[in-house]
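testing teh design pipeline on a random one, pls ignore if ur not involved
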């Protein structure tokens, strides 16, 4: 609720108004101001011409009597001047009505002046209704209402046409009902504002609780990854280092060195992931560059060093794809090579990149597993291809995976590299 002297909240929404009736509904209070201002023009003239009371009562009667006595052109001239004066006064009153919600003191001052001037009870009733509906200072409202009621009793009883009981009945009828309706509207407006504030506060608290739950879950996941995965990988690196030192031949030493290097890289990446998961102010996210297309030859060479037969080729003219497209392409080839090593060990693999003006097509094919090379496949979570598909969809691309007609398996993806594809990726990010 607004305080006295401050502009009350307007009914217009700060959001973009809906077309049609909603646009007019958002401006309903301002429209009501203009309608009331227009209505007070004939109302003021009626109060002045009918039987004015108060300070202007005797001058108005005197002007009317003189105009009737003189008659002729002079009487018409005097009557026109009196009419212009009434019109000017009505325009001034209507102008004040336009500021009824933003200038309550001006409204009450004009109500006092019109009431004492020519007995206008309409302006006083509108002032009480407006203040009760738009402002929450009940003490000031009571003082203003008592003052206007006193002025009304003085104007209509002291030398006026009414007795005190009749004037009291008029006060109840013309002031009591607008004041009661205004108090009901103001209380309802205050209740709605409090409920809205409470709902926003509860929603904010709910978001805070959700963030706390997410933070706690991320911390738990980081702790589990550190206690289980990092510990096992560290043991693997230590054993590989010992095997490299005490290897009986050069080939075994090279294999142990490759295992140790790969394990150390995995630990470094795992440490970066743990830094992101943990909610610690002193810890910062990893700043190491993410792998891109230029790192694919190194990835292929690592798998060749591990004993996999990998053939890499590309077609088209590489452009400058978005960073997310390059990261997604690298992860696609990485996941496909890992699957081939798990499920078809010893089978040759072919990696092919086809650069088009608006897309990048990636295919990774592995031949059927050679006979006699069956081995226990390493544990698999089953979420590799599902996670890869989600990553590719977020990048605005498509993915497919399935068996080849002559045996073997294919993992393929198409990623956008055009301007429109860039917009999709930026929206996803």
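output:
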């Amino acid at each position: 609720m607004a305080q006295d002297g401050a502009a009350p909240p307007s009914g217009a929404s700060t959001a973009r108004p809906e077309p049609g009736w909603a646009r007019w509904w958002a401006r309903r209070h301002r429209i009501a101001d203009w309608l009331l201002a227009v209505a007070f023009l004939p109302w003021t003239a009626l109060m002045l011409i009918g039987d004015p009371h108060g300070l202007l009562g005797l001058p108005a009667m005197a002007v009317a009597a003189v105009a009737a006595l003189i008659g002729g052109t002079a009487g018409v001239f005097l009557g026109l001047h009196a009419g212009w004066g009434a019109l000017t006064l009505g325009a001034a009153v209507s102008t004040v009505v336009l500021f009824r919600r933003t200038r309550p003191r001006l409204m009450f001052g004009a109500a006092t002046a019109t009431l004492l001037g020519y007995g206008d009870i309409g302006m006083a009733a509108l002032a009480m209704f407006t203040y009760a509906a738009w402002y929450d200072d009940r003490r000031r409202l009571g003082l203003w209402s008592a003052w206007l009621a006193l002025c009304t009793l003085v104007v209509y009883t002291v030398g006026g046409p009414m007795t005190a009981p009749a004037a009291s009945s008029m006060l109840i009828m013309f002031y009591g009902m607008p004041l009661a309706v205004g108090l009901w509207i103001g209380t309802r407006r205050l209740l709605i504002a409090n409920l809205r504030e409470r709902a926003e506060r509860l929603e904010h608290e709910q978001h805070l609780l959700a963030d706390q739950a997410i933070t706690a879950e991320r911390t738990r996941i980081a702790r589990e990854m550190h206690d289980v995965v990092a510990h096992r990988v560290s043991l693997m690196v230590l054993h590989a280092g010992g095997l490299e030192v005490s290897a009986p031949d050069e080939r075994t030493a090279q294999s142990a060195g490759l295992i140790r290097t790969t394990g150390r890289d995995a630990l470094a990446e795992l440490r970066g992931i743990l830094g992101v998961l943990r909610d610690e102010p002193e810890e910062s996210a990893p700043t190491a560059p993410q792998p891109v297309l230029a790192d694919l030859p190194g990835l292929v060479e690592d798998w060749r060093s591990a004993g996999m037969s990998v053939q890499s080729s590309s077609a088209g003219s590489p452009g400058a794809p978005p960073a997310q497209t390059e990261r997604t392409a690298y992860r696609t080839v990485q996941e496909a090579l890992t699957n081939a090593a798990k499920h078809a060990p010893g089978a040759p693999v072919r990696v092919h990149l086809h650069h088009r003006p608006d897309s990048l097509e990636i295919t990774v094919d592995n031949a059927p597993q050679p006979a006699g090379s069956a081995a226990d496949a390493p544990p698999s979570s089953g979420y590799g291809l599902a996670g890869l598909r989600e990553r590719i969809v977020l990048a605005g691309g498509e993915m497919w995976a399935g068996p080849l007609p002559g045996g073997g398996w294919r993992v393929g993806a198409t990623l956008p590299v055009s301007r429109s594809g860039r917009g999709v990726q930026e929206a996803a990010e």
